[in-house]
Amino acid sequence: MRLSPTYLLFKDLVTGLLITLRTFFRKPVTVRYPHEKVQVFPSFRGRHAMVVDPETGKPRCVACLKCSVVCPSRCIKIEYEVDEKTGERRLREYILEALRCVYCGYCEEVCPVGAIVLTEWFEYSGRCREDLIFNLEKLVQNWKEHVAKWDKEFYENKYWVLKGVPLKLKPAPRRMGLVVKIKGVKVDG
Amino acid sequence: MPENRLSEPEDPFLSVLELQMGPQHPSTHGVLKLHLKLEGERIVDCEPIVGFLHRGLEKLAENFTYPQVLPLTDRLDYISAMNNNTGYCLVVERLLGIEPPPRGKYLRTMVCELARIASHLLWLATHALDIGAMTVFLYCFREREQILNFFEEICGARLTVSYPRIGGVRMDVEEATLEKVYNFLPEMERRIDEYEGLLSENRIWLERTVGVGVITAEEAIAYGLTGPSLRGSGVPYDVRKHFPYDAYPEVEFEVPVGKNGDTYDRYKCRLQEMRQSIRIIRQCIEKLPEGEVVSELTPDLDMMPGGRMLKAEAFNEVAFISFLQEAKEIFPKGELYSAVEGAKGELGFYLVSDGSGRPYRLHIRAPSFIHISAIPKLAKDHLIADLVAIIGTLDIVMGECDR
């Protein structure tokens, strides 16, 4: 090896240096993060939010408990009350521990009404544990913050649509899609 | 010999020095601890100590329904999570007798190969960095970033993807994304040429890798090595060829093998494998059939262990636990083993089913765990600096080893 022309003429080193030299004239790929923000792709599994119906202004959740059953890390707890007359369930509290969540997206996939959603909001933190245990109020607040940043007219999550999945596997209310209208609706907060 | 230490000063080149390498050492690729016995700088004996990242994953899986175990398998070999997911899905599919639709199969093959490229890129990056080639590290991460972006676009997560599902994949891929992946492939091929230009003939790289960590084919088989670590010794064993799954029987690819079984040959093997992966992805996108991506027979995500829905009124902690304990036979009984060719080697899942909705026992044959057991053999009579190259060349991930 030591007597080969490659070795004696430093061909290996020159080849390597030429490759690095070529990179010298290319555009850098580094993103200077806090100053430049990376745009995540739609349906990125980020911070949780509770979708608010734009017409009534109430959370979409119907307390079916599917999300809390399916969650592999068991981080969702739901409290609800049953209406004596109609038998309708009313959501009282929805507690989601973001610290336990593994962001698998099962909850938003099973939700029949598209209420719980993992938004494209990826940078968030808290100063204590309680900051990251989201209750209903906090989840609605998360949704409002997400909507305020969303610049399109509609919001629809890919996990609500589930393209290519047989109709039989989708919950009935979701088969027609669950687009949320965002523009033209007054959002406070 | 600690009792002699006070009486007479020993010659450090003659006595055996014990040294603990890791678990915080950056070159041990995670939390691997090596108990070394040294003569000077020569390794006499080496004992790997594992278990620092143990999370009880197999036991945890026994408390989850079949769909719920899937996100756990992401955390095995977190660099190529797609392969783990596919391996787990395959074993459950074989238990339940589900056949994924062709589009699901092809998509799964495609993402598995993308994950394999990402894993090999990370291997090359860290392996080269351990040996001293900083540039390759940065270049590899540049390309890996693009592959992770594809994952993000396909399923919304970069590492813990949970994209495959029992009986197919979770959702279809947009045409635009497929186009992007297809256009990325020629660029990736050029990049591999770049890495090879930087390393394959480089004199320092050759000095550090040729003849380091040699293992013959017989020994490699005896130690149970699989994947590129075995193929570097010249054994053309590949689960994708020998026990084909998903769309692998329908695509053409070769299994690259090495000759000498040293670090350099394993490096060559993995680079060739990346080229073959590109070839597979290209064929997958070209041949991608139309249709649904997941079988209709797939168990619901919110299935209950007993096979029926939990009554909402009974949902409190005590009722939930008692509910988990009653197991009805809703699935076939039996035990089966099924393996996939993970990025590191043969990743096997051994599943025992008692007929309920939860695995009775799930054992994972993790290639990293078996590869670590070969470190003492490979490292004997090498220097400490070579040990770093040997750990790198086996491509171990502690998340998979300790589970």
Per-chain topology:
The complex is a heterodimer of chains A (189) and B (403).
Chain A (H helix, E strand, L loop, with lengths): L4 H4 L2 H14 L23 E3 L15 H5 L5 E7 L6 E9 L8 H5 L5 E3 L14 E2 L1 H14 L4 E2 L2 H4 L18 E2 L8
Antiparallel strand pairs in A: 1-4, 2-3, 3-5, 6-7
Chain B lengths: L16 E5 L11 E7 L2 E8 L7 H5 L4 H9 L6 H16 L5 H30 L2 H22 L8 E2 L2 E2 L5 H25 L3 H7 L7 H7 L4 H4 L7 H4 L20 H25 L29 H9 L7 E9 L4 E9 L4 E7 L1 H6 L2 H5 L4 H11 L3 H5 L1
Antiparallel strand pairs in B: 1-2, 2-3, 4-5, 6-7, 7-8
Characterization of this structure:
The complex is a heterodimer of chains A (189) and B (403). Chain A has 189 residues and is α+β, with helices and mostly antiparallel strands. Chain A has helices at 5-8, 11-24, 66-70, 106-110, 136-149, 158-161; strands at residues 48-50, 76-82, 89-97, 116-118, 133-134, 154-155, 180-181. Chain A is 24% helix and 15% strand. In chain A, the strands form three sheets. In chain A, strands 2-3-5 form a three-stranded antiparallel sheet. A two-stranded antiparallel ribbon of chain A has the order 1-4. In chain A, strands 6-7 form a two-stranded antiparallel sheet. In chain A, β2 (76-82) and β3 form a beta hairpin. Chain A is elongated. The termini of chain A are far apart. The mean pLDDT of chain A is 82. The longest helix of chain B is centred in the first third of the chain and has 30 residues, at 102-131. In chain B, 47% of the residues lie in helices and 12% in strands. Chain B contains 16 helices and eight strands. In chain B, α4 (102-131) packs antiparallel against α11. Classes of the chains: A alpha+beta (189), B alpha+beta (403). The interface between A and B is large, with 44 and 45 residues.
